[in-house]
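> @MW can you paste both from yesterday?
MW: sure, first one:
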Amino acid sequence: MKYYNAENYDPASSIGLSLSRARNLLAREMDAAIRDLDINHQHLGIIMALGRKMADTPLELSRMLEIDTGLMTRMLDRLEKQEVLQRVRSVDDRRSVNLQLTRHGKQMVEKIAQRAPDVLNARLKDFSASEFREFQRLLLKFIDA
């Protein structure tokens, strides 16, 4: 089924604008919650992905977080300079670089894990348990379409 067409499409009321606004709102609130860590929400994704063993190379992170490789390189440079992570040559393939969190990076994982749920829970406070599950289901369906 097609929900939009040339006659009824209004950017101001489209699902695209709503998703964009929701993302920007969540990013601002997450940035405020982690500001004292000297990182932003994009860095948070990298740090948590490494900390939770969801990825360990720049390419895996780029794909998972849907960030272009140039921006990923710049963010990794900054996090390396802040001693949050380090690049380590792969022993299996010297052309490949693996990423590892430093002790400081691992401490950041713990701090983020304590703060991020509060930001998300504040946004979800008016959802019932079934609404929350349905919201998750619908978002995944939208992403996978």
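MW: second:
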Amino acid sequence: MASNTPDEMPYLPGNNVTISGDDVRLRDFFTALAEGGQVTLPMEKQMWGAEFGQLTDKFGINWMVNLNA
């Protein structure tokens, strides 16, 4: 999986985490990370067939979670 930082977003090395896998517990992981944080893209089915979501946790760490279908 690859991604980049859009020009309108600040690039902060070490502040971005991407996790991808087949384990349905990733949904629970996403929900737990969202507590006290801000969901920027809810975990939902995407055009590439996986569930995907983005959030910033309560510590300011940005997460992208990809659950393969």
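> thanks! The CA atoms of residues 47 and 57 lie 25 Å apart.
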